[in-house]
Structure formats: C-alpha cells, structure tokens
Amino acid sequence: MEGKPRPDATAEQALYAMDRMIALAQFGQQDIAARLGLNVTDLTCLGFLIEAAMAEESLAAGDLAERAQLTTGAVTGVLNRLEKAGYARRQADPGDRRRVRVVLEADAQARILEVYGPFYERIDRLFADYTPDEIAVLADWFTRAKEILGESLAEVREATP
Fold first, then answer.
1. Would you tell me how many other CB atoms lie within 10 Å of the CB of residue 66?
2. How buried is residue 60: exposed, middle or buried, by Cβ count under 10 Å (0-12/13-18/19+)?
3. Residues 150, 68: contact at Cβ < 8 Å?
4. Per-residue model confidence as pLDDT tens digits over 72-98
5. What band does 115 get if pLDDT is binned at 50, 70 and 90?
6. Helix 108-127 to helix 40-54 angle, to the nearest 10 degrees?
C-alpha cells in the first residue's frame, strides 16, 4: 500500500493542530458523557474498565483509583454513579474479601458504542489513508506524547499549592 501525498508541515503547525484537536476532544468528552448520563471523570473511569475488560483483566476499586489518579473516596463516588447509571457493579473479590472488584454490566460496551461508534468508523476510514509504516509512526508518537504529558502533569500536580 502506498501512502497519499502529505502537505508539508512544521513542528509548530503540528503542535497547533494537536492543541486544537485536544481542545475539541475535551469539549466533546463533556457532550458524550452527558449523553451517556455521566460526567467526564465517570466516563474516563468507564473507559479504564472497558480497557481492562477487553484485556480480560479485572480491576479492583483501588486499581481504578490509581489509573484515574483519584482518591479512593472519589472512586467510591464514581462507582456509585456508574452503578446507578447501569454501567458497572461492585463484586466481592473471591481471593480477598477486603477488596472489591468492578465488573462491567453486560450491555455497557454496546451502550457506549452507540455514541462512540460513528466516530470510530470515521477514524477507521482516516487510518485507511495511511500505510502501515505511517500508522506505526502515529502510534509511536501518541504513545510517547502520552508519556511526556503524564510527566508534565505530575510536575503541575506537585507544584500546585
């Protein structure tokens, strides 16, 4: 497969395009969360639960708190709202009764895909315009940029009074 010709761009132009995409995504997450009857934090946590379920992993409430960088008290509120909305439920850990596992409800992924599905279909069509080597570069860039963002956010959080 041969890639399509790409317009020239500077790092500054790419940074600007990334900033605009992130801004739109932040507002979009608010709209998507509202449509699903959640807030953005709940939606983000639900995403972590789906990711774990797809990897055939089970998350304890504490694991979810760590991934979302929330306190265990805040995760309790998230789980209360996810249960009330019918997306997840708590389940006692059979190996350690002091721990609680979070289990997705059977229809949770389908309910979310009703909203995200059209976006994922458009992104799939966009990826079809790229060669496997170009997609590998994109995946590498996003992975490395996520690490840099994580480091930067940790610095911001440490400096916050």
1. 14
2. middle
3. no
4. 999 999 999 999 999 999 999 888 888
5. very high
6. 80
Asked if residue 48 lies in contact with residue 41, where contact means CB atoms within 8 angstroms, the answer is: no
3-class SS of residue 17: helix
C-alpha distances (whole Å) from 46 to each of 14, 24, 36, 78, 118 are 30, 20, 11, 9, 19
Give the position of tokens 């209360």.
Answer: 80
Contacts of 30 (CB under 8 A, 6+ apart): 40
Q: How far is CA 66 from CA 16, 75, 79, in A?
A: 31, 10, 14
Q: pTM to 2 decimals?
A: 0.85
